[in-house]
TrEMBL record:
<keyword id="KW-0347">Helicase</keyword>
<dbReference type="GO" id="GO:0003724">
    <property type="term" value="F:RNA helicase activity"/>
</dbReference>
<dbReference type="Pfam" id="PF00270">
    <property type="entry name" value="DEAD"/>
</dbReference>
<dbReference type="InterPro" id="IPR050547">
    <property type="entry name" value="DEAD_box_RNA_helicases"/>
</dbReference>
<dbReference type="InterPro" id="IPR014001">
    <property type="entry name" value="Helicase_ATP-bd"/>
</dbReference>
<dbReference type="GO" id="GO:0003723">
    <property type="term" value="F:RNA binding"/>
</dbReference>
<keyword id="KW-0378">Hydrolase</keyword>
<keyword id="KW-0067">ATP-binding</keyword>
<dbReference type="InterPro" id="IPR001650">
    <property type="entry name" value="Helicase_C-like"/>
</dbReference>
<dbReference type="InterPro" id="IPR011545">
    <property type="entry name" value="DEAD/DEAH_box_helicase_dom"/>
</dbReference>
<dbReference type="InterPro" id="IPR044742">
    <property type="entry name" value="DEAD/DEAH_RhlB"/>
</dbReference>
<protein>
    <recommendedName>
        <fullName>RNA helicase</fullName>
        <ecNumber>3.6.4.13</ecNumber>
    </recommendedName>
</protein>
<dbReference type="Pfam" id="PF00271">
    <property type="entry name" value="Helicase_C"/>
</dbReference>
<dbReference type="GO" id="GO:0016787">
    <property type="term" value="F:hydrolase activity"/>
</dbReference>
<feature type="domain" description="Helicase C-terminal">
    <location>
        <begin position="311"/>
        <end position="472"/>
    </location>
</feature>
<keyword id="KW-0547">Nucleotide-binding</keyword>
<dbReference type="GO" id="GO:0005524">
    <property type="term" value="F:ATP binding"/>
</dbReference>
Length: 472
């Protein structure tokens, strides 16, 4: 471990990694790890080094001296939560948990910035449980998420952890409310009035409705988490409400603020803004895991060049060849022009085509924004229960945790490198697993340079697949 003068005691002992793990305060506004090394020591908390090609997750898992989650959290997280986490299978911390939990549990505001599937949810949930007064019926932790589906997922994980483990029955636990768009807000209103839950997981729209009506009160809130924070700040609809939540509905001094995402473009600027705008305290810590390898290393990227007309047939061919255990086909959103012309969206065309011609054993399921919330909820739960072939817009690209997903297909290229990363990150989500999962993009010759741009930006390489049987 390389430890600098002025580093706080919360630095985690582990294998040094110059390139893999970087923790620095809001005052470190330099662009990357190389610059961070040359900063004056009080600005730098810790710097660790491991070979670039050794994935952090696996290197932590096999480090003999690596502490367990129990060792990191005991004394802060209640015993029954730790026991329950172990029952579920959370024993060895992932890199982001290893690095962030000591800081989180010491009360620091944190920006959690780590690869997709790296376990950020468990990191912030363990903090949430450590901060609760289980005997008090008041909202003490608020987790804000961008979509209903992600909210359902986080609620499920939180409820799973809050369930009493064997032998602890009778101990007081907490309640978790999902306050999500499309939910039954009337019922939630009565619940909030009668017996407020300790944890609320909310989408920003529903949350603000409740706050404006003074049904939900945040006086007792100790922890505020904003998940997929870059996505939330990118949406003009949400940003105003988000700013209000961060600055008017509660004060930074009375809460611990956690902002999480796998992608925080211009993160130095963002950390600076967090302090300037008073979204976080001045000593907010940016926990940046694996800054030189933003994409999980167990993903294998491929592309097939085909004309737009051949795309459906090519997709079918790939599915028959790959035989995914479970997969997602990502499709671009329908353009306004195509809507005006009354054309069906690509999702509908793909679903109809696959239902008619795909002979694999997976059921083909649709998920898109235009579906009503009940239909979306059905698709989402079917998806979680068993493997399937999901045809979706980018609604499924953020935060969705479907560990059984082995294959991703970009039927249409995403709009940006960030979107590519989040789509790709829906696979390869089993921590410590070395199994290869694949991301295949179906592109025209002209689109090759767009994919190349994503490769440069995200530092990965794709292999070209030449499908002989299609060209014959
Ligand atoms: N310590 C652990 N041991 C075993 N599995 C874990 C551990 N921590 C998390 N996981 C599992 O890893 C998977 C990914 O975790 P999670 O959904 O929190 O990732 P994430 O970092 O939030 O990803 P994204 O940025 O894509 O939302 C989940 O299935 C979770 O159950």
């Amino acid at each position: 471990m390389v430890c600098f003068r002025g580093a706080p005691a919360c630095v985690v002992p582990c294998r040094p990694s110059i390139s893999n793990i970087l923790l620095y305060s809001s005052r470190n506004l330099s662009p990357g790890p190389a610059n961070a090394v040359s900063l004056p020591s009080p600005f730098l908390f810790s710097l660790f080094s491991a070979p670039k090609d050794s994935p952090v997750l696996s290197c932590r898992a096999h480090t003999a001296a690596a502490p367990t989650l129990r060792e990191i959290c005991s004394g802060s997280v209640p015993e029954h939560i730790l026991q329950r986490a172990e029952e579920i299978g959370y024993v060895v911390p992932t890199a982001v948990q290893h690095q962030s939990l000591p800081l989180l549990l010491s009360g620091r505001d944190c920006i959690l910035h780590a690869q997709t599937g790296s376990g950020k949810t468990l990191a912030y949930l363990l903090l949430v449980f450590s901060a609760l007064d289980f005997n008090r019926s008041a909202v003490q932790a608020l987790i804000v998420v961008p979509t209903r589906e992600l909210g359902m997922q986080v609620t499920k994980v939180a409820r799973g952890l809050a369930t009493m483990p064997k032998g602890c029955e009778g101990t007081r636990t907490c309640t978790v409310m999902a306050l999500l768009d499309g939910g039954m807000l009337k019922r939630h209103r009565s619940w909030l009035k009668a017996e407020p839950p300790q944890i609320v997981v909310a989408t920003i729209g529903s949350l603000c409705q409740m706050l404006e009506k003074h049904v939900l009160k945040l006086e007792a809130m100790r922890v505020l988490v904003i998940d997929e924070v870059d996505f939330m700040f990118n949406s003009s609809k949400q940003v105003h409400l988000l700013r209000k939540l961060l600055t008017s509905y509660s004060a930074i001094s009375s809460r611990q603020t956690i902002l999480a995402s796998a992608t925080i473009p211009q993160h130095n600027r963002f950390v600076h803004d967090c302090v300037q705008q008073k979204w976080t305290k001045n000593d907010v810590v940016h926990v940046h895991v694996n800054p030189v390898e933003p994409m999980p290393s167990n993903l294998c990227h491929k592309f097939v060049i085909c004309s737009k007309k051949e795309r459906l047939r090519t997709l079918l061919y790939l599915l028959q060849k790959d035989m995914p255990k479970s997969g997602i086909v990502f499709v671009g959103e329908q353009s306004e022009k195509s809507k005006k012309l009354g054309q069906p969206p690509s999702t509908t065309l793909i679903i109809e085509f696959l239902r008619a011609s795909y002979m694999g054993c997976l059921e083909v399921i649709l998920l898109e924004e235009e579906m009503n919330f009940n239909a979306r909820a059905t698709s989402f739960s079917e998806l979680r229960e068993r493997g399937c072939l999901l045809v979706s817009t980018d609604i499924a690209s953020r935060g969705f945790d479907l560990p059984q997903t082995t294959h991703i297909y970009n039927f249409d290229l995403p709009r940006s490198a960030v979107d590519y990363l989040h789509r790709a990150g829906r696979t390869g989500r089993i921590p410590f697993s070395k199994d290869k999962c694949s991301v295949t993009s179906l592109i025209t010759k002209e689109e090759r340079f767009v994919l190349q741009r994503f490769e440069n930006e995200l530092m990965f390489q794709s292999e070209e697949l030449v499908l002989e049987s299609l060209t014959n």
